[in-house]
Amino acid sequence: MRTVRSSRNSAARQRGISFIGLVFVAVVLACVGVVVAQVIPTLIEYQAIYKAANKAKEGSTVPEIRAIFDRAQAIDDFQSVMGRDLDIKKVNDKVVISFAYEREIPLFGPAYLVLKYKGETN
Known about the structure:
Oligomer: single chain
Largest sheet: 3 strands, antiparallel
Order of helices and strands: HHHEEE
Strand order of the largest sheet: 1-2-3
């Protein structure tokens, strides 16, 4: 005897993603990719600021530390933190430089992504 398969049974066993589902996933991934592409430069800028702060702690006086930081800032070309924005302390004969700033990334309409960066040398 022959078994007859109905088209309903074979359709029920098929798995996968529909075209509408594929388009939805592609749109979500594209939106996430755009946001990540805007966040990466701010991370690179944070690393440049942290590197400049570490270089500046070699100075012995507050004006000298700020001048070293400003020179590094001019070379690395970042604008979020200036030498006057640094918080400079001396802890156990070590210079500790800390900084904090915010970056806003416009998403759409009135929506923004706010990134708060904070760093301190050791």
